[in-house]
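RECORD TYPE: inverse folding
INPUT: structure tokens
STRUCTURE:
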């Protein structure tokens, strides 16, 4: 098969949610339906995570906090397709990692808790998907237990997100009394049966409306009325609007009992797009059948203390990846040998021999490779960098023991390259007291932990009063440096950032001196 034909069989997506909505459970159930859990059955994902935490010092922090910091890439076959599920970090703190993973995905599944609806992180994630025009499916989870009214939830998504939910399935039975769903495309009522601990697929039975009315009574009557209402407002699936990220096909279910999981996974295959030719920096599409190319969306060092190395995750955009091929590293123009290529599931690695557009390959020993870098074979290509999120938290880092300054400097540079935090330097202070900038404060915890445990450089972090960053240039920096409540720092890529103590202060400066360059950072500049 050609790379384009292989690409057509692929679906590369991420599951996103506010913590506790059920992302891990749903991931596990997708694997169950994909037949990827082998003999271990459901429960394996969590069990494996537990084991990993116990054996790795990098996971120590993860274990302490009971959160997942590292992302995983899972690949499994389903209905003749290859599904690539990019896992996003599950912590409460929104971090740049999530954003980068979404840059490598062709679609996303948003999981909502039926009792909670839209939660703070859900809002942020929806926003990211919308700004990227990423097609989004919504799964309203936990319908097996008491929750809110289905119409009310749909209404809330539309009101808060501004993206129209188009229910593909509709629940029969209120939250807590879940009988099954009506597939609005066919009108079929799909009735589910519970199995013990949700350990195997939930048996499904298609029941015709007359029988459903008799057997489900009032629950059917209510669903029937709601469906008539949905039909009247025209909340039907519209492929074009979905692919443009304007509407979100919505599904009801329960990851715990497996109700509705198959219908959702089927929708990933049937509705989510397969990889399409990626646009380069000039906006020219790289054909799927062009020679190998891809971009790095994530770099991780020392994932496992027994392999002191650095893995760059490459999203393949065109061509056939074959292990051992020597590709060109776009930013440096140097050759890069892909002798050690893996699929990575947490710490467990399997060597990958070949990969196609949509697949993710973990390249080991990727010393010089950074987030956003392009790799290619034969025909050069440069894909757009991955935009970094505007940091909102800033802290000054100082090494506790000046005798460890060398280690500190090396560690800071490494964390900067990986994008664990952004590192900003003052021209007078340089590496003595760099300012670490983050989207979420947990990025600081990870940085401090790694500087101490991995680089042997314990640090002291002092919070600053800065809360807003803007991109500026040298002439403006000159004027800004003389002002109170403002500082100008430089990022490793040369970008000058002006930090302000409050948005109010920033507004004052903009009003007083409209000629200064103070550009918003979202979507600007490159990560790493
Ligand atoms: P997350 O990755 O989004 O953070 O959520 P996770 O899957 O870990 O689920 C959070 C909690 O919600 C878990 O309970 C999980 O069992 C439960 N849950 C997930 N999906 C459903 C569902 O469809 N119905 C119901 N009733 N519960 C669901 P926990 O008690 O925190 O953990 P555990 O001890 O069950 O593993």
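DESIGNED SEQUENCE:
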């Amino acid at each position: 098969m050609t790379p384009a034909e292989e690409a057509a069989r692929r679906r590369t997506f991420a599951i996103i949610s506010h913590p506790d909505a059920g992302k891990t459970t749903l991931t596990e159930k997708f694997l169950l339906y994909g037949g990827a859990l082998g003999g271990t059955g459901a429960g394996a994902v969590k069990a494996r995570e537990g084991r990993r935490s116990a054996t790795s010092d990098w996971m120590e922090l993860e274990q302490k906090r009971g959160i997942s910091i590292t992302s995983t890439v899972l690949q499994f076959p389903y209905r003749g397709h290859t599904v690539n599920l990019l896992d996003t970090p599950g912590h409460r703190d929104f971090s740049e990692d999530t954003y980068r993973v979404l840059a490598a995905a062709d679609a996303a599944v948003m999981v909502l808790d039926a009792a909670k609806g839209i939660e703070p992180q859900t809002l942020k994630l929806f926003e990211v998907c919308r700004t990227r025009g990423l097609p989004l499916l919504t799964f309203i989870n936990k319908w097996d237990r008491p929750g809110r009214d289905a119409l009310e939830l749909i209404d809330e998504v539309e009101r808060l997100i501004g993206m129209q939910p188009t229910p593909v399935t509709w629940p029969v039975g209120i939250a807590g009394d879940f009988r099954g769903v009506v597939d609005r495309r066919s009108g079929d009522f799909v009735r589910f049966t519970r199995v013990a601990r949700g350990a195997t697929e939930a048996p499904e039975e298609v029941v015709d409306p007359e029988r459903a009315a008799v057997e489900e009574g009032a629950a059917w009557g209510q669903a029937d009325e709601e469906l008539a209402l949905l039909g009247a407002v025209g909340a039907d699936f519209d492929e074009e609007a979905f692919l443009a990220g304007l509407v979100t096909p919505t599904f009801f279910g329960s990851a715990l009992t497996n109700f509705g999981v198959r219908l959702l996974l089927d929708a990933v295959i049937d509705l989510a797009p397969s990889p399409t030719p990626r646009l380069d920096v000039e906006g020219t599409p790289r054909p799927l059948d062009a020679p190998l190319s891809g971009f790095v969306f994530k770099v991780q060092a020392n994932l496992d203390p027994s392999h002191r190395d650095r893995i760059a995750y490459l999203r393949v955009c065109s061509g056939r990846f074959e292990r051992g091929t020597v590709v060109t590293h776009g930013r440096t123009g140097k050759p890069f040998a892909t002798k050690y290529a893996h699929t990575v599931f947490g710490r467990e690695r399997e060597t990958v021999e070949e990969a196609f557009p949509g697949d993710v390959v973990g390249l080991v020993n990727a010393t010089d490779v950074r987030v956003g870098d392009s790799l290619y074979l034969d025909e050069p290509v440069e894909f757009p960098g991955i935009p970094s999120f505007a940091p909102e938290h800033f802290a000054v880092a100082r090494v506790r023991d000046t005798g460890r300054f060398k280690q500190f400097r090396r560690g800071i540079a490494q964390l900067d390259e990986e994008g664990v935090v952004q590192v900003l330097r003052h021209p007078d202070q340089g590496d003595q007291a760099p300012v670490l900038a983050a989207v979420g404060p947990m990025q600081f915890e990870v940085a401090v932990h790694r500087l101490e445990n991995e680089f042997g450089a314990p640090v002291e972090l002092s919070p600053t009063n800065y809360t807003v960053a803007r991109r500026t240039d040298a002439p403006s920096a000159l004027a800004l440096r003389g002002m109170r409540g403002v500082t100008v720092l430089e990022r490793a890529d040369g970008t000058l950032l002006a930090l302000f103590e409050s948005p109010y202060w920033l507004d004052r400066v903009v009003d007083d001196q409209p000629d200064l360059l103070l550009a918003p950072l979202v979507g600007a500049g490159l990560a790493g």
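NOTES: The mean pLDDT is 86.
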